């Protein structure tokens, strides 16, 4: 769990004199960033350049523009996940990592081969599958960004067909259950009637 900690500039020399591991320092006065990580080198170059361009446009502005720029970058990285969804009748929707990686450009594959093993990505896919399997669909801002990035939405037809099949199967099971209940009630009623017919009533006058 990362922490965001504010430190006054007068204390920075003291802070830097201590052993700092995996600490990123952002100096808001000079607008400089010190990081022990090389995360940018691991990202596809076209995604990084696109993100930088959008952030420059947002420089000095307030609002959700910066957040939206990062969301667009995430959509560019992971937007093709829908093409790796698997819809099989009578089975929950699943996700194929191999298809997800192979359907992207060669410049993306090396990054995605590592990304699919990250806990954050796995949680993301699990949450998407949970919504889809519950019939809720996907209509959040991330899906909007994916659409704006130009990724195919052909998977939605497959999802609608799968969902319709699930609804039909559910309706059939409900009818079968109702029929079984009616049959059970009828058998119990018949047994009760047969018991009454077998009773012998003696009247003494």
TrEMBL record:
Ranges in a coiled coil: none
Where would I find the UDENN domain in this sequence?
1-135
State the superkingdom. Eukaryota
Q: Which Pfam families match?
A: dDENN
**Residue stretches of biased makeup (Basic and acidic residues):** 170-194
Set out the biological process GO terms recorded for this chain's protein: endocytic recycling; endocytosis
| Gene Ontology molecular function terms on file | guanyl-nucleotide exchange factor activity; phosphatidylinositol phosphate binding
**GO cellular component, as recorded:** cytosol
Q: Which InterPro entries match?
A: dDENN_dom, DENN_C, DENND1A/B/C, Tripartite_DENN
Q: Which SMART domains match?
A: dDENN
Region annotation Disordered: residue ranges?
170-198
The molecule here is called DENN domain-containing protein 1B-like
Q: Which organism is it from?
A: Callorhinchus milii
């Amino acid at each position: 769990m990362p922490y965001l900690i504010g430190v006054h500039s007068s204390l920075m020399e003291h802070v830097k004199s201590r052993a700092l591991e995996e600490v990123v320092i952002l100096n808001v006065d000079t607008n400089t960033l010190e990081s022990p990580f090389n995360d940018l080198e691991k990202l596809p170059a076209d995604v990084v350049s696109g993100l930088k361009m959008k952030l420059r446009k947002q420089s000095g502005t307030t609002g959700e523009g910066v957040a939206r720029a990062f969301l667009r970058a995430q959509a560019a990285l992971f937007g093709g996940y829908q093409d790796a969804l698997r819809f099989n009748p009578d089975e929950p929707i699943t996700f194929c990592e191999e298809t997800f990686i192979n359907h992207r450009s060669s410049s993306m594959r090396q990054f995605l081969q590592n990304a699919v093993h990250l806990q954050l990505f796995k949680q993301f896919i699990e949450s998407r599958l949970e919504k889809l399997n519950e019939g809720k669909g996907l209509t959040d801002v991330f899906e909007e960004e994916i659409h704006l990035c130009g990724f195919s939405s052909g998977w939605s037809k497959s999802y609608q067909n799968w969902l319709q099949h699930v609804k039909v199967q559910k309706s059939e099971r409900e009818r079968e259950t109702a029929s079984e209940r009616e049959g059970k009630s009828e058998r119990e009623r018949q047994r009760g009637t047969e018991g009454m017919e077998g009773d012998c009533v003696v009247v003494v006058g």
